[in-house]
Amino acid sequence: SRGLGDVYKRQVEEKKTWKTYRNQKEFVVRARMDVRSVYKLDICCRILQTSRSDILRKGIDRLYEELTEE
Q: What is the pLDDT of residues 3-40, one digit of tens each?
């Protein structure tokens, strides 16, 4: 019979696999920004309590939806 350790290890591996797949971000993109844009970005981060990357992804998603509406 298997010990509880084996069951726990299997659960942890399953969680890692799901989490890794769900949050997989393969690319690093750099952008040049002026001081005013960085300031606005940081204000958004403070208000929404999230990262710069998350704010930029949300902005890209909104713009994409706007441009592809029919």
A: 556 666 665 565 555 555 666 778 889 999 999 999 99
The structure tokens 């019979």 sit at 1
Distances (CA, A) of 3 to 6, 9, 14, 15: 6, 10, 17, 19
Task: Look at residue 24 in the predicted model and tell me its pLDDT.
Answer: 73
| pLDDT number for residue 62 | 96
Distance CA 67, CA 44 (A): 23
Q: Across 1-70, where does the E strand assignment appear?
A: none
* Crossing angle of the two packed helices 52-68 and 35-48, in degrees rounded to 10: 100
CA angle 35, 48, 51 (to 5 degrees): 60
